[in-house]
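Hey team,

Sharing the (E)-4-hydroxy-3-methylbut-2-enyl-diphosphate synthase run so nobody has to redo it. Sequence (384 residues) first:
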Amino acid sequence: MTNTDTRDDLATATQVRELFQAGSELVRITVDTPQAADAVPRIRDHLDRWGIDVPLIGDFHFNGHRLLQDHPACAAALSKYRINPGNVGKGDKRDRQFAAMIETALHWNRPIRIGVNGGSVDPELLESMMDDNCQRSQPWDAHAVMLEAVVTSAVESAKQACALGMDPAQIVLSCKLSSVGDLLVVYRELARRCNHALHLGLTEAGQGMQGIVASTAAMSILLHEGIGDTLRVSLTPRPGESRVQEVVVSCEILQALGLRSLRPTVTSCPGCGRTSGHAFTELAAKVDDFVRERMTDWRGRYPGVETLQVAVMGCIVNGPGESRQADIGISLPGSGEDPAAPVFIDGVKHATLRGPALGDEFLHLLEQYVQRRFGSGAANQEQA
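Structure output:
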């Protein structure tokens, strides 16, 4: 999700492009004011001119029904609408305003995501469920009732949308919370009660390593259990930090679980007393950075390049073996050994690199390998 002011259409479109180039396949933008709604078509126009076809999701709270009805160009430019049942309205207005958003989705044939957040669960529903809980012979604790309210809000809102004419296949549900344990409980129950697509996310996960570890722990368990269709890692960016960090983490989770191949895998050892610390770690970082930077170009020119396996190993213990198992790998000699680094391509020793330029020489070999294996000539040769 972008964190720019949506009214600034160029800044928002630029960040959408950055997220897309980092691997995001869906991008959500805040639509909270008439001015933001007016900017959405311009954002879409910028992206189309740049050849960025990533779908835009409108994030609506409190006034989404009015913005979608009053700004049809915004409704048309968005590919999906996010609705929070807890922020649609209160009392009699809730059902009318929820229905108005569904009517707009039906008019433009747009899917919706019904996104319930633990911090903004429907207060009237929660109060009613708390009252009912008091009548139980063995009342649940208040936290358990809150989790049940989160699931109920999502499931019942989906039923309401279907009753209004929405195709169940066009409804995505999410129930985001801040606790890993709570998220597991809620999504397992959500998966048990419905057949809608589910969007995963640990909301308010935190900053830096805390947010990365918590999000990875929660979503990896659910994805391994077959729960979840889309995901977002919600990280609080550090000052000056790029927004693409949350996309990178999301991609790494899917890649590590073997669910998606989104970029070449760079395998590298952790290093030990046998490795030449600076030379090895600098080369490992250089190769990883190179692959990430080149993917913007490779993704469009070399179909299948995301399955590439690269190895950067630090010494002779596991280095030659791991390098042979990769598509292309290099094994540094380690500390106090002959400063010669063999390169293996498709399991066969291809060359031995020496000297201070061996890193650049390996990157050159890597680029050549990608062109040869995944380029149009390679595809034609396989067909022949």
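Residues 9 and 43 are 5 Å apart (CA to CA).

Ping me if you want the raw files.
A.
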